[in-house]
Specification:
Strand content: 15-25%
CATH superfamily: Flavodoxin domain
Helix content: 25-40%
Protein name: Flavodoxin-like fold domain-containing protein
CATH architecture: 3-Layer(aba) Sandwich
CATH class: Alpha Beta
CATH topology: Rossmann fold
Shape: globular
Keywords: Oxidoreductase
Structural class: alpha/beta
Number of helices: 6
Family: Belongs to the NAD(P)H dehydrogenase (quinone) family.
InterPro entries: Flavodoxin_fold (IPR003680), Flavoprotein-like_sf (IPR029039), NAD(P)H_dehydrogenase_qn (IPR051545)
Number of strands: 5
Distance between the termini: 8 Å
Order of helices and strands: EHEHEHEHHEH
Length: 186
């Protein structure tokens, strides 16, 4: 089995990076793991004309950078994305990666990523009740589960939200929950 672990945080000393490291270690117990650290690899999340979808041409040749990322997605049996939740959504670099790489003719349209398994692990600073109070509960899940994964043919998809990362004295239970997600995949 091959896993693609996507990490979307600018600091290697962050809780998000720590969780990603632990998830990688768990995945490595039963899978070959390709770590795609969007910041460390210098991924540019800005859409370019070369990577903009052409609805009349699903066979459009995208940029070499995007084609290389597409190849990594194709090579994976399971996709795990670890990211901070900022403003009740994924950070810009992750959204840009989805916009540029999960493109028409590759991830949706005449093609799809069906048959893959996907796990999203979001780390939210606020406790869950803050999401509920502001009417944002379930928003991130619906966007990533339905608007991205299922739209692209991935039916085996789950989002684990690790809430309250800024208010906990001990992040150990959050890390353990993320490790359990990874352990269940291998």
């Amino acid at each position: 089995m091959r896993a693609l672990l996507v990490v979307a945080h600018p600091r290697r000393d962050s809780l998000t990076a720590h969780v990603a490291d632990r998830v990688r270690a768990r995945l490595a117990a039963g899978a070959e793991v390709d770590v795609l650290d969007l910041h460390a690899e210098g991924f540019d999340p800005r859409m370019t004309a070369e990577d903009e979808p052409d609805w009349s041409d699903p066979g459009k040749a995208y940029s070499p950078e995007v084609r290389a990322h597409m190849a990594r997605v194709v090579a994976a049996d399971v996709l795990v994305v670890v990211f901070p939740v900022w403003w009740f959504g994924p950070p810009a670099i992750l959204k840009g990666w989805i916009d540029r790489v999960w493109n028409h003719g590759f991830a949706y349209g005449p093609s799809s990523l069906g048959g893959k398994r996907m796990r999203w692990i979001g780390l939210a600073g606020e406790p869950e009740d803050t999401f509920v109070r502001h009417g944002m509960s379930g928003l991130v899940e619906r966007q990533l589960r339905d608007g991205v994964s299922r739209y692209c043919g991935i039916d085996d998809v789950e989002l684990t939200m690790l809430h309250g990362t800024l208010t906990r004295d001990d992040p150990g239970p959050l890390v353990a929950e993320a490790e359990a997600v990874a352990a269940a995949l291998v």
